[in-house]
Predict the structure.
Amino acid sequence: MSHIVEIKTEIRDEQAVRAACTRLQLAAPEHKTVRLFNATATGLCVQLPGWQYPVVANLQSGQVQYDNYGGHWGEQSRLNSFLQAYAVEKTKIEARKKGHTVTETSLQDGSIKVTICVGGAA
């Protein structure tokens, strides 16, 4: 039986952040305090390509802080790609912890289909 799941992504898992960065060929994330345009933020920082300021994940709250000035200081699509990669990597980590087999398929529209095989049934 197939199940469609919609996920609201909260960034809480450092291992999944690191895997997402590796997947997207980004620099390794760093724990630090950084200055955004008019504020500071502390957390696990990810520098997205073409972004003036990093994305800062507070792993305790799951929230992400960033300032891309409505796309002028960084393309929103880069953040969307990172969040998608994080969600896929987190899903794979959790499924494998439970002994499930995971496969993924990139779809033409840019989405990713993740299939988790539980007990031999797909």
In short: Helices lie at 14-23, 76-97. The chain has a mean pLDDT of 92.
